[in-house]
């Protein structure tokens, strides 16, 4: 559907990059899962098979949810990018000082009627993208919220476990490193989703900037300028964001997670230092 609309506007679309990205994400997830499970097998020869199959089931659910969310979000980002390029192609984004030196992508459309028809199609594409983003928020926001919450809790536990293993120099140091590797594997999917969600917000804002430049530099018709002004107001009232209703999936979420993880980690360390461990209590009791 989007392909035919972009082709009618003279924008060539190639889905090779999108296919390669989806394949790369799936292959990376499979390889990462195999490597993580291999580390567990190398560390512990007597594997608890019930725990192993539970971990595999959880890993598959987590991985497939993140892959679906990341892939769909990336496709939306590419459509927003193509929309921005299409607007720049049909409307000037710089001051036309010399007609002979105008960029080729702008000089291809000169009449106000052609610009108006192109703008109507672009508005229709943007409306469809907004509806698609709303559907993505409804379908994937809660699932990704669960993945973000699980990654947050696992990050606190694994970081504290690794800290205790390093400080007390016990035999659980290797297991602490293995658990931390698992945490990095899970958080990588969340980082991908946050990065793409941030790029979607950035492309949505960039469309508004491109429309404002077109308003400033368009000199074909007052009707086209009025249409661009109305389009700009519509963009300001609906910025495309990936959200779960509680917060937006962008880089500010990552900074909040890092700050909260550091806060809870410090609290756990203070409790661990302030109170004696169970081993120390057992040794004191045996000596008495």
Overview of the molecule:
The structure is a single chain. With 288 residues, this protein is mostly helical. It has 9 helices and no strands. The chain has helices at 2-8, 16-43, 49-90, 104-107, 112-168, 173-217, 222-237, 251-274, 278-287. The radius of gyration is 26 Å and the shape is elongated. The N and C termini lie far apart (80 Å).
End-to-end CA span? 80 Å
Number of helices: 9
Global Rg: 26 Å
Characterize the main sheet. none
Keywords: Cell membrane, Membrane, Receptor, Transducer, Transmembrane, Transmembrane helix
Membrane topology: Multi-pass membrane protein
Main location: membrane
InterPro entries: 7TM_chemorcpt (IPR013604)
Concise overview:
The protein has 9 helices and no strands.
List keywords for this structure.
288 residues, mainly alpha, 0% strand, transmembrane helix, membrane, Gustatory receptor, receptor, transmembrane
Blueprint of the fold:
Blueprint: H1 2-8, H2 16-43, H3 49-90, H4 104-107, H5 112-168, H6 173-217, H7 222-237, H8 251-274, H9 278-287
Helix pairs in contact: 2-3, 2-6, 3-5, 3-6, 5-6, 5-7, 5-8, 6-7
């Amino acid at each position: 559907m989007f392909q035919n609309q972009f082709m009618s506007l003279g924008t060539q679309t190639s889905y090779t990059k999108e296919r390669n990205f989806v394949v790369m994400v799936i292959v990376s997830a499979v390889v990462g899962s195999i490597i993580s499970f291999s580390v567990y097998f190398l560390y512990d020869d007597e594997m608890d098979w019930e725990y192993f199959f539970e971990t595999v089931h959880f890993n598959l659910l987590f991985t497939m949810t993140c892959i679906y969310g990341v892939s769909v979000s990336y496709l939306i980002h590419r459509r927003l990018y193509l929309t921005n390029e299409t607007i720049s192609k049909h409307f000037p984004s710089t001051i036309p000082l010399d007609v002979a030196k105008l960029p080729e992508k702008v000089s291809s459309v000169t009449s106000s009627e052609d610009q108006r028809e192109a703008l109507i199609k672009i508005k229709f594409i943007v409306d469809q993208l907004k509806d698609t983003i709303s559907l993505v928020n409804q379908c994937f926001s809660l699932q990704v919220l669960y993945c973000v919450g699980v990654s947050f809790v696992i990050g606190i536990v694994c970081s504290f476990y690794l800290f205790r293993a390093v400080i007390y120099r016990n035999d659980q140091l290797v297991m602490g490193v293995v658990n931390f590797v698992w945490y990095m594997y899970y958080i990588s999917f969340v980082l991908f989703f946050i990065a793409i969600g941030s790029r979607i917000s950035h492309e949505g804002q960039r469309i508004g900037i491109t429309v404002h430049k077109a308003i400033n530099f368009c000199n074909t018709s007052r009707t086209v300028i009025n249409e661009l002004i109305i389009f700009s107001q519509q963009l300001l009232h609906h910025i495309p964001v990936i959200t779960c209703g509680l917060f937006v999936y962008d880089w500010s979420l990552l900074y909040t997670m890092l700050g909260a993880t550091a806060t809870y980690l410090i609290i756990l360390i203070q409790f661990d230092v302030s109170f004696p461990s169970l081993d120390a209590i057992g040794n004191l009791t045996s000596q008495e």
